[in-house]
Design a protein that fits this description.
Largest sheet: none
Helix content: over 70%
Shape: globular
Distance between the termini: 44 Å
Number of strands: 0
Length: 172
């Protein structure tokens, strides 16, 4: 296991963008933040408040799925307790959540992509399918996660999406 963790650290370092200013680093920072729960919660609540009955239903179901996923991610993080990679960027994440496995951002992004496939237009689904892996990789590029953290988060998000869709299907 130790050898795998060492390889993970090497691969993650290879994907990391150097500190400094540049368009690629700025884009990665924006993508890294675009998966924040503090953005998606209010955005989905606003959509529920302002949208049609169909939009309201999708927004509230998505919000419930995100909430359920957050509980699972937190539980796994507290169980595994893997420290984040060393770094300066993302101080708010580092201070409020020192654990890196699994990536909650990757999990949330992949969950939303799965839900969009079932509940949104092809355009929205296509955008989120492209966006989700970019969010995950940006978290590694900015030094907040190891590659295995985002792979684990992505898998968790895919599973959570399937579970959410199954629950909604069962409820009718």
């Amino acid at each position: 296991m130790q050898r795998l963790l060492e390889r993970d650290a090497v691969w993650s370092q290879a994907l990391r963008l150097e500190d400094g200013r540049g368009i690629l680093r700025t884009a990665a920072a924006l993508l890294a933040h675009s998966g924040d729960s503090w953005f998606w919660g209010p955005a989905l609540l606003a959509a529920a408040a302002a949208g049609s009955a169909e939009v309201r239903l999708v927004a509230l179901r998505s919000l419930a799925a995100i909430g359920g996923l957050a509980i699972v991610v937190l539980g796994v993080k507290l169980l595994i307790r893997r420290r984040r990679p060393e770094g300066e960027w993302g101080a708010i994440y580092r201070s409020t959540d020192p654990h890196s496995f699994p990536s909650g951002h990757a999990a949330r992004a992949f969950l939303l992509a799965v839900l969009a496939l079932a509940w949104s237009s092809a355009v929205v689904a296509g955008i989120l399918i492209v966006w989700a892996p970019l969010v995950a990789l940006s978290r590694v590029a900015m030094g907040l996660h190891y590659l295995s953290d985002v792979v684990g988060g992505a898998l968790l998000g895919l599973i959570a999406g399937g579970v959410a869709l199954a629950i909604v299907s069962t409820l009718g």
